[in-house]
Structure formats: structure tokens, C-alpha cells
TrEMBL record:
GO molecular function, one term: DNA binding
Keyword Transcription in record: yes
Keyword Glycosyltransferase among record annotations: no
Name of the protein: Transcriptional regulator
One annotated GO biological process: negative regulation of DNA-templated transcription
Family: Belongs to the BlaI transcriptional regulatory family.
Lineage of the organism: Bacteria, Bacillati, Actinomycetota, Actinomycetes, Propionibacteriales
Pfam families: Penicillinase_R
Keywords: DNA-binding, Transcription, Transcription regulation
Coiled coil segments of this chain: none
Top-level taxon of origin: Bacteria
Amino acid sequence: MGPLETAVMQRLWDKNAPQTVRDVQEDIATEREIAYTTVMTVMDNLHKKGLLTRSRHGRAYIYSPKESHEEYTASLLEDVLAESGDRHGVLMRFVDRLDEDVLESLRQIVQDPLRGDDRQS
């Protein structure tokens, strides 16, 4: 995703509720000037890419992320591993870069994957 697509997605993930183009445009406009039509185009593109779902709400669409931020990030990691050719090597180098707190979280997840949503990233 490009920077504007990322900004739109981040706002939708943060709100955790369906949003209209106007909702997202007004939110982004608190940080920088941006046209409604620009946000509308970006959200339409994200929908076409399969990252957003949308449904009619009166004359407007309301949009929601197709997957959570965590699910999206996990799918990116899965793609990277699939393309790497050496999944084991990539994972080993990734783990080598983790700090001790994250390593401990990873150990707990691997030992007890059914712990639920109390995992920390």
C-alpha cells in the first residue's frame, strides 16, 4: 500500500467501526489538507483490491476493513515467507532481531497458542 492508502486503512482499523468517505476525509483533514474526492478514490481502490468491504447507507457507502490489522500484517508476513525460498533462514534471522520481551511473548504463544486475545505485540 502507498502512504495515503496506509493512512486510510489505519484510520479504519483504529475506529473499528464502519466509516463513510466523509468520516475518513474529515479525520485525515485534522492533520493535512485533503480533498473528499481523493479519499473517495483511494477507498474505492482499496475496495477493488479486496482490502475493504462496503455497503450502501442511504446515498453513500460505508466501508470496513476486510480483515483486522493483525490479520493483514500476518498475511504480509506469510507472503514474504512464501516468496523467500528459505522460510527457515528468514524466520531465524527475524527471531535474531527481536528484543527479549517480544521473544518471551513468542515463546508463550508457541507453547500455548490458545491463550486468546491477551497476547501483546
